[in-house]
Amino acid sequence: MDNGDGITVGWLGHPIFRDKEGHELFVRPDVPFRRAESKYSVKQVGVTAEFYGGELNGVSYSDPTTVKKYARCAQLGEIFGLDRATLKSDGVFRSSPRGWFTFGHASFALLFFFGHIWHGARTFFRDVFAGIDPDLDAQVEFGAFQKLGDPTTQRQGWGTG
């Protein structure tokens, strides 16, 4: 992570975006198909970014370039200040073979774990999955005639004597 973003230096604050009338806005990653058709650009709406808490507490930006920069960062969560110079970070996330090995094993472990849960549930609730009503337990012994060809299996059905 340090090679990707850099070393976290501090929390910049929680940005609140507002239009000219003061309505609070929600940042979404929608990009219009053509920029000429855009009706809600940051410049046209007059969006401002005001920060609460952190290093930029109380600071408000109305410059469209700066507002767009913080809006892009806000889509990923809280905004942190990053030191990219110390580790020569370039913003590209990479993984080592050890990371891929761990990811693969964790994925398969979860797959097998949930598979065991699923098949255990199928065994415990076999009658429910077969569509047998739970109220029939008083009338029918479920699984009594399950072993076909076995001489120890009951031969008479329910109610035949």
From TrEMBL:
Keywords, in A-Z order: Chlorophyll, Chromophore, Membrane, Photosynthesis, Photosystem II, Plastid, Transmembrane, Transmembrane helix
Cross-referenced Gene3D superfamilies: Photosystem II CP47 reaction center protein
SUPFAM superfamilies tied to this protein: Photosystem II antenna protein-like
Primary location: membrane
GO annotation, biological process: photosynthetic electron transport chain
Localization (cell): Membrane
GO cellular component: photosystem II
Protein name as catalogued: Putative photosystem antenna protein
Organism of this sequence: Rosa chinensis
